[in-house]
């Protein structure tokens, strides 16, 4: 928000309070002055947000609730995306998708909260790219906003109860949860509605997340904060997200988050471990050897890191890396890094931009399987490049309308050097409320 607009809004509020006075000539009292000062501080805080790269700091990277003084909170967003693909003959060259999120949050007592999140999503996005996939079937695609249900009807994706214990030192959430909302976060590469769109820049592609196709699952998450700079989060979730035998083969994950400041610049450094005991039969085609049914009941596990660090008030850098068992997986690991910035040098501090590079390292077992299968497969690591410019069209404090041109380039699709590299161009329109 431009400063001139903020000052004008403040002045308008002062005039409004004056004309609300029941008696002519009434002076604004101490209570009213305090309210005006508080409003000025809020406006200044919203203005300051426009001078830094947009950060995703919520537990769920898809939601950014604004707290209401009346307790009940309703927030949401609409996302419309169109992508086109060059250098891909014989396939669809462009596809669109639309999605919507609606979150309702209500307090229960002084320390509890009930949350329901509903999604709708229509459109499958660009298909036919033949990309690498995780054992859970999640491809390294170009639009992480696409859900699997492809239906305009509202779906309840999250429904849970959260509670603060010991003065906020321990946070507990139990119910239907978004696993990625609690693990593998990143302030600059975690929100497909405002930042990068490619799957590999939203979450680590070398994690075989449990839950449904979209990583929603019944489970429990606990976050312990023994110090201001440290959070410890552990969680256990139904491996398949279908509520059938949820305690037999759970997906478990643990993460340490360190909030550090170097030269007065904030940064968050995360390290995590995860394990998934098994997967359903429908995931056989996504394993390192799609003919080996024993892999369905073979445990997968891995470690990873995710960090983000402000270099200045306007510029930040990020990095993700992880490994998993290549006996099971098409990818043995992932490494990605990038830079994010506000467009302060263009006089548009509300706009943000980012540049990211990532590589999925093909696994030895998958490489051997593809070679034995024939078809002229030439093994190579899958490389991703993406850049975007997120233009703020109107609103307050980053909430409102955004338009983001997005460009991606993929090398060695599906870990095959014989495939043609593709250039993806697109645009995203986002409305938050």
Q: Please outline the major beta sheet.
A: 16 strands, antiparallel, barrel
State the share of residues found in helices, binned by percent: 10-25%
Secondary-structure-based class equals mainly beta
Strand content: over 45%
Order of helices and strands: HHEEEEEEEEEEEEEHEEE
So what's the CATH class of the largest domain? Mainly Beta
Radius of gyration from the CA trace?
Answer: 23 Å
| pLDDT averaged over residues | 85
Shape: globular
Q: Would you mind describing this structure in some detail?
A:
With 433 residues, this protein is mainly β. It folds into 2 domains: 1-49, no CATH class; 50-432, Beta Barrel (Porin). The chain has helices at residues 3-19, 30-49, 364-373, and strands at 73-86, 94-108, 112-122, 151-165, 170-178, 216-227, 230-237, 251-262, 265-276, 300-310, 315-324, 331-343, 348-362, 382-396, 399-411, 422-432. The chain has a 16-stranded antiparallel barrel. Strand 1 and strand 2 form a beta hairpin. Helix 1 runs antiparallel to helix 2 (30-49). The longest helix is centred in the first third of the chain and has 20 residues, at 30-49. It is globular and about 60 Å long. The two termini are 16 Å apart. The model is unreliable at 1-30, 45-51 and 57-69 (pLDDT under 50).
